[in-house]
Amino acid sequence: MSKHFTIKSSSIGKDGGRFSADTFRDASKSVATKLFKETQRSTITFELRETTRYSEKKIVEYEADKSENGKVSVHIKKDDKMKKEQSGQMKGGKQGKQVGGEIGTEKMTKIDGLNGIIGQINMAKGLVSSVTTEDEAVKAAVEAAVEAIEAAEKAVEGVVKIINNSRFQVFLQKLSFNKDTK
What we know:
- Helix content is about 55%, strand content about 20%.
- The chain has about 180 residues and is an alpha+beta fold.
- The relative contact order is 0.09.
């Protein structure tokens, strides 16, 4: 299946265009070749953005070199993951995964919030479990509280799985599109 890409920015000031390729690497070679035809430089940098419908809209920064014999070599300078880590947007684990566009940002915020809730649930479970007493009524209440906390944790984890489901993301994008067109 062919994917679509565009030049987000380049060191020679060219952007835009539409490139079709199976992979980022293939597209980056086509872009580099096209950009080298428009300049005399031997090194250029450019950002390539995937524009395929329902894709993650990932952005990868490349550096390309052209040798004296005209051969073009391309290598990744930075990709989305590196950029997010450097800007502090990615905190580790699964919560850094982003699906794209406004929905992806909304998704990441929801998952960050849900992971915060899971952390609070675990803290509550630890506090409740640490209660020591000989009173049978208090023991029963503590056991019930621990069971309720574990059920809440499973529910939150289920919501995170649903949000991470790619079919659910497509549904949300279609829902958002339909809402915007009315």
